[in-house]
Amino acid sequence: MLGTNPFDDDHLHEECGVFGIYGHDDAAAHAALGLHALQHRGQEAAGIVTFDGKHFHNHRALGLVSDNFGDGKVIQNLKGYAAIGHNRYSTTGETVLRNVQPLFADFESGGFAIGHNGNLTNARALRRQLVHRGCLFQSTTDTEVIVHLVATSLYSTVIDRLIDALKQVEGAYSLIALTNESLIGVRDPHGVRPLVIGELDGAHILASESCALDIIGATFIRNVEAGEIVIINEDGLHSIRPFLKRPQRFCIFEYIYFARPDSIVEGTDVYETRKRIGAELARECHVDADVVIPVPDSGVPAAIGYAAEAGLPFELGIIRNHYVGRTFIEPRDQIRHLGVKLKHNANARLIDGKRVVLIDDSIVRGTTSTKIVEMVRQAGAKEVHMRIASPPTTHSCFYGVDTPERDELLAAQHSLDEMARLIKVDSLAYLSIDGLYRAMGEAGRNSETPQYCDACFSGDYPIRLADQEDGESTAQLSLLAELG
User: Which of 119, 342, 403, 477 yields a CA-CA distance of 20 to 30 A from 317?
Assistant: First the structure.
């Protein structure tokens, strides 16, 4: 997979984060700060589009928010009282500027900018139909499908055109759009991906997570509901619900890994939830040991909960280097053998001679887990037991999360004992899916009407995988494939 860090390839990655603000003189600056808080949701590219009442302005670039919007001149050129921003994490192919969002188009009615978090599961079929009708695509993202559906709709208003477009798409999405008149936010009818509403000095804000409100001192108002469209303009905030009501299936992996620990997601404290997950893991999968050590940073809250429940010491026995950046994206062969040590280092003083419980949020391919275990053993661990704060990841996600093909998922191809041997641990155990639901405050998973989207664990996909059923890939579209 090009454009990603080879020493961070054993976690799932969100594709993007979105931020919008309407009615503030410093809209661009606040959008940049909001994107900075959402940087964990996408690190490969960022963009901001603003509107000043007459003209749209935009800046899109590859790289981190701080690298591209830290220059005051960039923000000064993004004039206006309304702005939307987007952080991107690509799933396949090279990250190129044409794919950086927000996308922008000029319609007869005016400008239209859009940023999208999620994945459309019928994007390829829709794209073929649109190309047949004469639409010219400039990017390889599924987001542009929405733009063309809006552009070709026969309805008169932008809102009606957007509703018409979204009634044709299938998949999981939270999106924000900016027009000459309004800031618009939408969640799909199942509410798989998050979107919240905030307020600052009379200005309304839309963001993927509440941590983006915290950074600018905004007040959290509420979540955008599943299937809801919110329209923010000079008259205030208005809400419509034009889609058929569906069972809500919010992505449960947001609580395990994706969301920032300081966010409140769907009314639930992410940090406290991860500690409860760790405590449940200790109850289900206890092992005699001397110390509990998280795989940083994502394993830390669960490890705290595990240690407290098990009555074991919690130690930061692995230290993470947060400054492994683009320099090491494609390292030369002679330094590739350094592997995980570029990013993690064992604190041998806390490990030597100890029976160690390693806590991580998930295992995807198993590559990083193997390196971590080897590093802990080299630091003198007497025993190494790995405990995973989620059920086994056995299925790919098609709803906006970068997931390997199923034949690359370790848990889909091997038994628990086989996995333990492969990553060379003394024991390996996962949290059960019912245990995960108990940590969420539920009695367990209701198999008839699951409370969350847990398809990566269960294979129970709540939204039809139209392209997949037709033999198409639902990954982002490849420009070369389209041209070929």
Answer: 403
Specify the CATH number for the domain of residue 165.
3.60.20.10
**H or E stretch covering 32:** helix 27-37
Per-residue confidence (pLDDT) for residue 316, from 0 to 100: 96
DSSP class of residue 314?
Answer: B
DSSP strands (E only) in 335-434: 344-346, 355-360, 383-388, 401-402, 427-430
Whether residues 153 and 218 fall in one domain = yes
Q: How far is CA 284 from CA 277, 309, 438, in A?
A: 11, 11, 12
Q: What is the reported pTM?
A: 0.90
CB 88 within 8 A of CB 95: yes
Check 16, 397, 453, 456 and give the catalytic one.
Answer: 16
Q: Rounded to an integer, what distance in angstroms lies between the CA atom of residue 119 and that of residue 194?
A: 13
For 288-309, the pLDDT digits (tens) are 999 999 999 889 999 999 999 9
Q: Are residues 236 and 88 in the same domain?
A: yes
On the question of a cis peptide bond just before residue 392, with omega within 30 degrees of 0, the verdict is no
CB-CB contact of 20 with 178 (8 Å): yes
Let me know whether 244 and 273 are in one domain: no
464 occurs within a structural domain: no
Backbone angles phi, psi at 176, to 5 degrees: -125, 145
What amino acid occupies position 217? G
pLDDT higher at 409 or 1: 409
Q: What are the CA-CA distances from residue 300 to residues 131, 208, 257, 327 (Å)?
A: 48, 23, 11, 27
Residue 447 lies in a domain: yes
Amino acid at the residue 351: I
Residue 289: both structure tokens together:
């040991």
Mark whether 389 and 300 lie in a shared domain. yes
206 assigned to some structural domain: yes
Domain count, the chain: 2
297/185 same-domain check: no
The pair of three-digit structure tokens given for residue 440, joined into one six-digit string:
């969420």
φ and ψ at 328, to 5 degrees?
-105, 20
Q: Closest Cα partner for 397 from 144, 119, 86? A: 119
Domain carrying residue 197: 9-249
292 and 182 in one domain? no
∠ CA 262-264-266, rounded to 5° = 155
**16 catalytic, yes or no?**
yes
Together in a domain, 127 and 236: yes
Q: Please determine, for residue 3, whether its predicted confidence score (pLDDT) is greater than 80.
A: no
Kindly provide the residue ranges of all beta strands, DSSP E only, lying in 151-210, ordered along the sequence: 171-179, 183-187, 196-200, 203-207
Q: Please answer whether residues 356 and 289 qualify as being in contact, where contact means their C-beta atoms are separated by less than 8 angstroms.
A: yes
Residue 386 β-bridge partners: 358, 428
Residues in the chain: 484
